[in-house]
Fold:
Amino acid sequence: MNSEVSYSPAKKLKAISLRNYTHKTIMEPLITIFVDFNNLDQEGRVRLITAGALHDIKTKNIKLFEGLKLLLDDGQEFKGAGVVEFSKSENIWVARFDWENMEQF
Structure:
C-alpha cells in the first residue's frame, strides 16, 4: 500500500508499506581457485602465486582485488572460503582464511 507522507509543506514523499514484503538474498557461488596450503606467508595467508592458482586466475578471468571472496581448494584434502588481500611486504596477492572453517576431505 502506498500513502503520501508530508514531512514539510514543500515536500511530499511516498511511504511504502513493507508489511508483506519479503527480501530474498541471492547468493552467487564463490569462484574456486587452486591453492597450496603449505605455501603461507608470515601472517598465515596462502600465497596466490603457485602455478595452479595462476592458471585458475588466468583461465577463469579472475580480477583480484582486496576483499574478493574465493573458494580455496587444494584439490586433495582441504577446501574453504578465503578473502583476497595484497601483501605489501611481498608485493603479491594472498588469501586470508580460517583453519576452523575449512572442510577436510
Observations:
- The CA atoms of residues 5 and 45 lie 52 Å apart.
